[in-house]
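pinging the channel bc i need a second pair of eyes. not urgent but kinda urgent?? the chain im working w is below, pasted from the shared doc
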Amino acid sequence: MLIRFRGKAVAICTNNTSIFHCNGFGFYTLRSQYLHSSTPTHFLVNYLVDSLGFSEKEAILASSKVTSCKTPKNPDLVIDFLKQTGLDKTQMKKMVSAVPKLLFSDVSKTLKPKFKCLMDLGLSGSDLVNVVAKDSQIIERGLDTHIRPTIDLLRRTLGSDENIVKAIKRFPWLLTFGAHHIMETNLLLLKNSGVPDLRVKKLLLRIPRCIAQKPQWVKGLLHRVENEFRVPRDSPSFLYGFQVLTSQKNSTLDRKFGIFKSFGWSDDDILEMFRKLPFCVGLSEDRIQKALNLFMNELGFETAYLVSHPAILVFSLEKRVIPRLQVLKILDEKKVERRKLDLYYVLSLTELKFIDYFVMPYKDQIPELYEPLKKTVAP
């Protein structure tokens, strides 16, 4: 007997067995035995569309990532397991879309123990989905050879499962490529460089990927911070300098240094600024250009002042610097008596303190300063 299914003729047996079954989400799919003669890709495309709501285009793309379908029955077992873990249809679709071979994993031997390990840490729902979706290797890597040793190392370094979850969410690949061996070496390099444990912990929480790089790369960056950028190992800026350089290609650094030099900065000026506040080099090229143009070309500040007060370059131009400069300009245009403070001090004030110094004393005399801030200063 032939029926039409998705525009194709499919042969079925004419016995009393139902040819369709409900998958638990209100969709009905052909039972696996009637698709056994179809190609694996054809089967998976149909399955993803009918079971998880994939579009045909999405299903074809996901199916192309699967080299073989071990058994058509297995996806039903996986879907049932994912439902039991508390995932909804949307979350399952996201996970399967990123890792379609998940549908053909052994539930008892592979999925249950690995998901339990991750969920015991505190990963669940969308967090669990995101970790698995970002790193497909997590399904293939050994639980005892890769995942658990890495978790144990992270626990010793970070101190709590909550912190481990934070690190894994930032960089899921920590769990899968034998990172515990690499991280042990890198952590030792940092320790031998004089970096305190507390700062290593903060670095691992902020940029966990930098501890998972090749040790030779980490060693080279530590050497550059100390020797090329002349930041002493015992300086609070040493680890921050390392952190900034982890995200900067040499070509990017060269362009940024070129921007500073176009405003008259010397190499020594740039290095002194880096030693005081490495994050200035982490700013985007556009932001560096705009900040230097404002402070040097428009406001007339000298290089020496900015080198001595590098935090000025880090303050948000749109949210802090320009609005505060406008307030000061209005006060000066109105010729009122106001506090005469250094610009760095003015920009360093908290928002409420700035309002207290430069807005509230003039709210009746210059209401246009106060009106936009009523909600901010309301009791």
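so Residues 80 and 199 are 44 Å apart (CA to CA). and Residues 19-104 form one domain. — does that match what u expected or am i reading it wrong
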